[in-house]
Amino acid sequence: MKWTRQDLDQYVQAKEYVDTVIVPLIPFHISDDAGLGKDALQREVMSLFTRELERELSGRILLFPDYHYLKSAGKEAEAERINAWIEDIRYQPFHHIFFITADSGWKKLEQDMQGTLIWLPAIVTESTKARERQSVIHSQVQQVTELIRSYWKDNK
User: Fold this and answer.
1) φ and ψ at 116, to 5 degrees?
2) Which one of 31, 127, 140, 150 has the lowest number of neighbouring Cβ atoms within 10 Å?
């Protein structure tokens, strides 16, 4: 389920079945003219990835809105803010919380976060053709789907 009115209405009716949250972590840095295009591409790819992941795991996950943060900001403070989100999320019956990012800097803070971090190396570049991009994203979605399902199996 996505963060739309229709899906959230459906979530409220079926929340006992939706036990997993996906939170995309998206960096940006507006003052870095040279990096704007790369940041925008990363967001677009992450959006495609999380939408396809949500389709694959439909009925069991809720795709949260993107969590945007400044690249230049300290990730420690961002981790505290994210954990505040998670405290609110925990009031619902969610058992699994996954953060998805292409920013490897989060790996250093993974143990401080109240959820599981999935780091996706940036494998799509501006020169990647649209068809190749979709194929790469689909392959990664299949791998992450299996990873998430393994967490579900472990908690039965």
Assistant:
1) -105, 130
2) 127
- Sorted by sequence, the CB contacts under 8 Å of residue 133 that are 6+ apart come out as 45, 48, 124
* Residue 80 in tokens: 């505290």
Q: Which single residue is written with the structure tokens 């392959």?
A: 139
Answer yes or no: is pLDDT of 127 > 70. no
39-78 pLDDT, tens digit per residue, is 788 888 888 899 999 999 988 999 999 999 988 888 898 9
CA quadruple 126, 131, 135, 137: dihedral sign: positive
**Structural domain of 90:** 5-154
Q: Domain holding 114: CATH number? A: 3.40.50
Query: What are the C-alpha distances in Å from 78 to residues 10, 62, 63, 138?
Result: 30, 22, 19, 29
Angle between helices 36-56 and 130-154 (to 10 degrees): 50
Nearest to 117 by CA among 143, 148, 92, 153: 148
For residue 30, the model assigns a pLDDT of 77
